């Protein structure tokens, strides 16, 4: 018996302002892994205010207004936090999800519109090089503020990045529509075409001026993974981890377990 492992990527432009609508949509659509950019959360905001039943939330916040990225992972899906980094050129959060003995390296990212594009891809290159090696697949999603419907210097740099890692960028239609523009800036990059069985661009009404990406993979129905432990990698000074509430936690198949450790402690293998 097979089922769809369903992912969603969305620039929410303040998770708190439309949270009830977002929560209802995620539940109704049976999303398994949700990646959000521009959460607009800060470290002083408790994750209980953005809690979704049967999900764990992992956040990387700015210390100031705007930006921020987050993942929600459904209970029963084994995952571990790999890395997060909040800089002026790129905000990124990486996790590894394990389903039916396959490991998916997932990133949710946000590049501010004014950020240097070349510096953004330098940072992303370093992360992807270090983090994707121990995984079967890599999926990078989020708002890059690079319009792939236009051939310019930014899209050329994006294409160079894709070629260097043999990635495919799947989004070909507008993801942000305003009264005077239609741009495809919310992107989906995959390391292999067979990762994704299908995707669609959808309007989550009343939340954001961005459209959401829903994509899925047909897979055998999975059982809850056995307990495993994983520690985040050391990250550059200023990077922010928030595992559910305030400190660092070790997630075990949907049940959060508080651990006290130094940021330099090495994570264990799967």
TrEMBL record:
> Listed GO molecular functions?
catalytic activity
Q: Where are the transmembrane segments?
A: none
Domain Endonuclease/exonuclease/phosphatase: where? 8-210
Matching entries from InterPro entries are given as: Endo/exonu/phosph_ase_sf, Endo/exonuclease/phosphatase
Q: What is this protein called?
A: Endonuclease/exonuclease/phosphatase domain-containing protein
Task: Look up and give the organism this protein is from.
Answer: Acanthoscelides obtectus
């Amino acid at each position: 018996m097979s089922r769809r492992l369903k992912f969603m990527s969305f620039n929410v432009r303040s998770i708190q302002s439309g949270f009830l609508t977002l929560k209802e949509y995620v539940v109704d659509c049976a999303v398994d892994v949700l990646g959000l950019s521009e959460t607009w959360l800060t470290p002083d905001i408790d994750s209980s205010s953005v809690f979704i039943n049967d999900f764990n939330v992992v956040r990387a916040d700015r210390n100031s207004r705007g930006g921020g990225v987050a993942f929600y992972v459904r209970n029963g899906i084994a995952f571990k936090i790999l890395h997060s980094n909040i800089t002026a050129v790129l905000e990124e959060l990486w996790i590894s999800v394990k389903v039916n003995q396959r490991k998916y390296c997932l990133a949710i990212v946000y590049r501010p519109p004014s950020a240097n594009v070349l510096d953004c891809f330098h940072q992303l290159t370093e992360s992807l090089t270090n983090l994707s090696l121990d995984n079967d697949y890599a999926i990078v999603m989020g708002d890059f503020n690079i319009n792939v419907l236009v051939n310019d210097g930014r899209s050329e740099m994006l294409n160079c990045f894709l070629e260097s890692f043999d990635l495919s960028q799947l989004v070909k239609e507008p993801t942000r529509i305003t009264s005077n523009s239609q741009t495809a800036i919310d992107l989906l990059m995959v390391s292999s075409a067979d990762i994704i069985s299908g995707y669609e661009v959808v309007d989550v009404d009343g939340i954001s001026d961005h459209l959401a990406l829903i994509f899925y993979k047909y897979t055998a129905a999975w059982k809850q993974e056995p307990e495993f432990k994983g520690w985040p990698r050391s990250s550059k000074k200023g990077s922010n981890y928030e595992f559910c509430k305030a400190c660092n936690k070790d997630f075990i198949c949907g049940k959060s377990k508080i651990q006290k450790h130094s940021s330099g402690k090495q994570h264990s293998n799967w």
